[in-house]
Write a structure and sequence with these properties.
Elements (H helix, E strand, L loop, with lengths): L11 E2 L7 H14 L6 H14 L3 E3 L2 E2 L2 E3 L7 E11 L9 E9 L4 H15 L2 H9 L3 H10 L1
Parallel strand pairs: 1-5, 3-6, 4-6
Antiparallel strand pairs: 2-3, 5-6
Helix pairs in contact: 1-2
Length: about 150
């Protein structure tokens, strides 16, 4: 399954209201809950926080990919958030994350999880494209940009 197949307007939040990593994780998990993608908010949030405790998922260049595996989901779930002012994600380059891709996968599904991470890494190579995403005004624009890419 391609990452783009998971992207719909109801899993995109522009702009994120949260200003720190724990609140951003909560806000993006709530996006999944509101979109009907997950049922157990607490289990997903706990798994994400546990993953972040092991090491930051901030990639640098304004991108973070908080992700985890949990039995609270059976298929790969994705939420996208834009934080125009940036959020400290302990990225290696020290830059705040503005473009966030949150992924949650089942422990027995490593293939789609790894493929989605690879697709995000490839997207991140284009600073121009990432800038367009960060400057988008709403979820519809984000989905349009990603579907055209």
């Amino acid at each position: 399954m391609a990452l783009i197949d998971l992207v719909t307007e109801n899993i995109v939040k522009v702009p994120l209201k949260s200003r720190n990593k724990p609140d951003v994780l909560r806000e993006l998990v709530q996006v999944l809950k509101d979109a009907g993608q997950i049922e157990d908010f607490d289990a997903v949030l706990k798994a994400l926080q546990g993953r972040e405790d092991k090491g930051s998922t901030g990639l640098g260049e304004g991108i973070a990919v908080p992700h985890c595996k949990t039995s609270a989901v059976s298929t790969l779930k994705l939420a996208i958030g834009i934080a125009p002012d940036g959020v400290d994600f302990d990225s290696p380059d020290g830059k705040p994350a503005k473009l966030l891709f949150l992924m949650v996968a089942s422990p027995n599904l490593s293939g789609p999880h790894v493929e989605a991470l690879a697709e995000i890494a490839e997207l991140a190579q284009s600073k121009t494209f990432c800038s367009k995403l960060i400057c988008a005004n709403n979820a519809k624009e984000i989905v349009g940009l990603l579907k055209d890419e």
